[in-house]
Structure formats: structure tokens, C-alpha cells
Amino acid sequence: MALWALGMVVLGPSAQAGFIDFNPTGSSSSSPITIGGIDVAPGSALAVNSLPLAVGKTFQLVYQASVSGLINTNGLTIAPPGLMSAYQLTAVASFTEVVTSLNSSGTLATFTLAPTQSPNSFFEMYYNPAVVVNNLAGTGFNAGTLILAGTPATTAASVGLFSLSTDTSGQPIAQAFDQYVANHYPGVATVVGSGSALLLSDVTYFNPAFFLTPVSRLSFNSSLVTPFNQVSPSGQFTSLPGGGAPNVTPDIGTINGSNGKDFQFQADANLAFTPSVPEPASIIQAGLGLLSALGLAALMRR
């Protein structure tokens, strides 16, 4: 029985995404919720200096969006009272990517996290008691209280792809870049396409008032599409951690994805978290302590 108990302690749960307890405001004004993840609203992603594409080329993918809801233990998205009306939760990120493949026509590309990340690579989440985010301007995403920070997990598997839609002659199809409510980019078109990205980040900081369950890693899973149909394209991005002012203006040319240096996507993401587990030394120590306790109990019975 003692050996079995030690085995259960040493093996423990595997380090994978799971349920965590989360308080949306970090205060008594909201109730903690057990969640399986966070649903992020459609936002903007920008592949800086990614064009023209070539296998082996690296670029910085910057991203920003607001949180739209929490994913409960049944996999359903729920909106806590006051989210995006009385307060906001936001996510900003910057990852160094590398192109891993490109077909002969240049219409299908795959990418992954680069093994060497830029010093400004990061992932952050913020809480703000006021709703100040502006998707069109690209501001307010890193304003408020930092509640989570991380760095890209380059040793973990990551994958991304993007495919262009083509006409009968094999040429990329172009449409108006901004098709959300009103066209704020008159005269700017975009190639039409879709794809996705799955990236992981090691958590370096979490605010325990919000993350009641300690977390060690997050999974960032997002669709990538053009044109923009569900949100306005951001006119600025933040590529530095720590809450600095936006410092990147997209260079997408007159046809996004074709004649500019950058490629801008509508990104619709969700986040999952890996709860922290004790370090191996702590696990073994706990197991030895359990063995000692069981041995002492046996001696006492004897």
C-alpha cells in the first residue's frame, strides 16, 4: 500500500491543459469561476516584415484582442457580468515565427515558432476597470493591471498555416480589406485566405487575485483570415511588453498580403491553461514523507 501510494504521488497528474479557478476582476465584485479556458474576441494579428515569403525567413507576429468570455467546464462560452461594459480583459502578444514551407505557387505556407526568439517576444493579459480598448485605433490593449505574462515555449510543438483563395486561373482573389460595418480603409484591398496558428507560452508571472489556480503554461489557438469581417483592422500594434505605447504601424501596401512588407490578419483565438504541478524534488519529498507516515503507523499498530 505504501509503495502504491508513493507511485500515485510521484506520477501525479500530467502537465497538460486543465480546469482552473479564475476571478475575472480579481476582487470581491466578481465570483471565482472554474474554467477550461478563455475565449478571446476577434482581433488583429500582424506578420511584420514577412513579405515576400521564403522558406527559412523569420518575422515577428504581433497580436492584440479583447476577451469576450470564459469557457466553462462544459466547453460553453459564458460572459461574466460587466465584462466589456464595466471592465475589460485583453491579450497582447509578440512571437518570432519562421516559415517552414511554401508551395510553388506561393499560395500555401506553413510556419512555426523560431528556435531563437526576439528579445521582445512575449504574451501578456491585462485587466482594466474601464473599457478603453479601441480595435480600429489599435490602442488600450495593454492598459491597466498586468495579470499574466509569459514567453514563447520554443521546445513545445507549434504549428501554423495560411492558404490563399485563388480564381480559375490560379491567381489570388482580392477583396476590400475592411468589410466590418464600414470600410475604414478605402482604396486598400487584401488577398483572401484562411489559416490557423497553435502556439504555446511558458508562464513567467500570474496575478493570484485573478488566477486562483497557479498556471505554468498557456496554449494560444487562433484562426487567421482575410478580409476583416468581424472586427475593424487595427491601425497600430504594441510589440514590446510592459504596457508601452503602440510602436508598430502596419505596412500592408495597397493590397494586403501582396505589395506591402507586412501581412495583417483577423485573428479569433482562445486560450487554455496548464495548472502548475509541484517540482519533482517536492513530489519525491512528499512521497517519502508519506512512506514515513505509513511506516510509523504500521509500527504503532504492531
What does the model show?
With 302 residues, the chain is mainly beta. The protein has one domain (33-275). Helices cover 11% and strands 41% of the residues. The chain contains 2 helices and 16 strands. The protein has helices at residues 2-11, 280-301, and strands spanning 20-22, 33-40, 43-48, 58-72, 77-78, 88-102, 108-113, 122-128, 145-152, 159-164, 174-176, 189-191, 193-206, 215-226, 255-256, 263-275. Strands 1, 2, 3, 4, 5, 6, 7, 8, 9, 10, 13, 14 and 16 form a 13-stranded antiparallel sheet that branches. β4 and β5 form a beta hairpin. It is globular and about 60 Å long. The two termini are 16 Å apart. The model is unreliable at 1-14 and 279-284 (pLDDT under 50).
Q: What is the chain-wise order of helices and strands?
A: HEEEEEEEEEEEEEEEEH
Total DSSP helices: 2
Share of residues in helices: 10-25%
Low-confidence stretches: 1-14, 279-284
Count of folded domains = 1
Q: What is the average per-residue confidence, as pLDDT, rounded to a whole number?
A: 90
Shape: globular
Measured on Cα atoms, how large is the radius of gyration?
23 Å
Largest sheet composition: 13 strands, antiparallel
Share of residues in strands: 35-45%
Q: Structural class, judged by helices and strands?
A: mainly beta
Strand elements, count: 16
What is the CA-CA span between the terminal residues?
16 Å
